[in-house]
Each structure stands twice: as structure tokens, then as C-alpha cells.
Amino acid sequence: LRSDLLASIDAAAGLDAVEALRVHALGKQGAITGLLKTLGGMSPEERQEQGPRIHGLREAVTAALAERKTSLERLALDARLAAETLDMTLPVDSVPAGSVHPVSQVMDELAEIFADLGFAVATGPEIEDDWHNFTALNIPESHPARAMHDTFYFPPEADGTQKHLLRTHTSPVQIRTMVKDKPPIRIIAPGRVYRSDSDATHTPMFHQIEGLVIDKGITLGHLKWTLETFLKAFFERDDIVLRLRPSYFPFTEPSAEVDVGYSVVNGKRVIGGSEGWMEVLGSGMVHPKVIAACGLDPNEWQGFAFGTGVDRLAMLKYGMDDLRAFFDGDLRWLRHYGFSA
Ligand code: PHE
Questions:
Q1: Residue nearest atom 5 of ligand 1, based on CA coordinates
Q2: Which residue range or ranges hold the Aminoacyl-transfer RNA synthetases class-II family profile domain (predicted)?
Q3: Dist. CA 223 → ligand 1 center (Å)
């Protein structure tokens, strides 16, 4: 019986056959089960002789069944792995990949550079009211600066006042931040702004980034260091030279327009050096009237602010020459400057 059973277990062709053999030998009606039952009717001497033989047989058969089962399972797995190979050399269907627009990319870069300097990102609405966009920034109603901003106005209110407009700059976020937060304040505010203006260097919608620092004892020196540090990091050059030109903005005093030096390489202007100057931003010390309009004491708090065109910074960094192309959504243009697959 033993050699018969072991031979047929070894020869079992599949898991079903192994299971059938197990029932045949060890099941309720199985051959070995039957032998085990005979032990009860034996004399002690007989049982002492037969017991170990029958139990030994059962163990040997149980082990053989388990072993055959494992090896059959392994064979099945090997067969499956052999059948399921992937052909890594098959060509893949190409899926067009999107990419981040250069303007968004520059805004992300700027947020990262200023985060390293301890600036948080603040935001405000694109539909602004007159007070935040102009009045609180020391641009009263009759001020000529209002006309200079080429503002898009919404229809007048029922009472005839012209309250809502598309913000013409990101400076209203200065106001919203000073009204809401206690100094010290260090924020940048990137976002869309709108002016009724359109040519190769002006689009009706464009992007600015505002900077604002309010603290005790802030000076023009802090402003210049901050601008220099940010422009060096942004243009990834150490030879950035700044020129601060006295200027006028109603909300800063003194005010300065900031030029960055360029050099000419193969007939093209490259930021760095000082062969010529390009205007990149407006800035100044926050006007005491603006600080007071936000409910802060200008004798206690001082600060600086600056504002710059994000699209213009992107053009300078990537050597692009038509601002309007930024908003055409032409994939060939994006590809040309390496912004799309
Ligand atoms: N808001 C100004 C503009 O749009 C730029 C500016 C911001 C100037 C902050 C000074 C301080 O031209």
C-alpha cells in the first residue's frame, strides 16, 4: 500500500488528482483511515507492532501529498509567468503632455525666492472698489493718476457713484493686508491686473507682483538689498547692477524707479553688467498717509513697497519679444521657448 500510494502521489498530474488521492488514503472512507480503525480491535502486543507502522504510513503519505501539492503549484506559477511576459520593446502611443505656462512658472519662481526671504503670499480680488485701488493709496478722486491708469470701470451704482472696477495694479493688496494684519508684515501679492491698453508691450490684462514690508525702522537700504537679492536669484546671475531713479507714485515717498543693467551679447540684450539700463519695477517707502488710511500709526510703522510686471520679467529672462504671444495659447510659441512637449 505504502509504495503504491507514494508512487501515485508522485505521478499525480494536477491538484485535483492530489486531492483525490488524499481522500482515497486519508478521507473518512480512506485506506489509511480504515487501517487506523483496526487498531482498536487488536491485542496490546499486536497494536504495539502495528500502531507505529500505520501512523508512520499516515505521516509519510501526508508529507508526500503536501510536497506534491507545493511542486504542482510552483509549476503552475512558472507556467503563468512564462505566458504573461510583457513586450517592453513595443512602441508607446504618444500622449501630449501639458506644461506650466511661462507666466505661472515665473510667479511660482518668485514666490519661492521671496519665501526664502520670509515673505508670505497674499491675494486680493480682481474686481476691486475705488477705495482700495485708489483712495486709500493716496490717489483722491480728482487726482490725475486716476486718468493715467486707463481703468476699466463697471457700470455706475444706483446712486450714481462709480464704485467697482478691475484693479489696475496689485497695490490694493497692500491696503487689504495692512487693514487685516498686524505688523510686522512681509508679503508679496502676485496676480492679474487690467488696463485699457494694447500694443506689442501692453495687453489689457497682465500680471504684477507686489511686495510690501511694514515694520519698525525700515529704510531704503532694506528695499535696495531686497530687490538686489531677488533679482540676482531670479536671473541667476551675480553681476546684477541696480540703478534707483527718483520718481513719483502717490502711495510712496520717496519713490524710485528701478533699472537693471544689461550687456549686449551677440547683438542681444542679456541681463547682467551695466552697458545699458532697463526699467523693471516701481518702488518706494510707503507714504505715511497710506499707513494711516489703514489704521496704523505712521510714527510707529514704516515700510517699503514695490511692484513689477511678471510678464515683463518673463520676457527678459527667456528672451521673448512680444507680450501678446503670452496670451495667444499658440503651442508652437510655447514649444519654441521650451515650455511644452
Ligand atoms: N503700483 C505701481 C504700478 O502699477 C507700482 C508700484 C508698486 C510702485 C508699489 C511703488 C510701490 O505702476
A1: 307
A2: 104-341
A3: 14
Q: What is the pTM of this model?
A: 0.71
H helix or E strand, kind and range, residue 163: none
In testing the pocket of ligand 1, which one of 133, 166, 168, 169 has its CB within 8 Å of the most ligand atoms?
A: 169
In the chain, the N- to C-terminal Cα span, in Å, equals 74
Cell 505688523, residue? 183
Please, what is the Cα angle at 42 between 39 and 43, to 5 degrees?
A: 135
Give the pLDDT of the chain (341 residues) as one tens digit per residue: 888 889 999 998 989 999 999 999 999 998 999 988 998 888 889 989 888 999 999 999 999 999 999 999 999 889 888 888 888 888 888 777 778 888 999 999 999 999 999 999 999 999 999 999 999 999 988 887 777 678 898 888 788 777 899 999 999 999 999 999 999 999 999 999 999 887 777 889 999 999 999 999 999 999 999 999 999 999 999 999 999 999 999 999 999 999 999 999 988 889 999 999 999 999 999 999 999 999 999 999 999 999 999 999 998 888 887 788 888 888 888 888 877 65
ipTM exceeds 0.95: yes
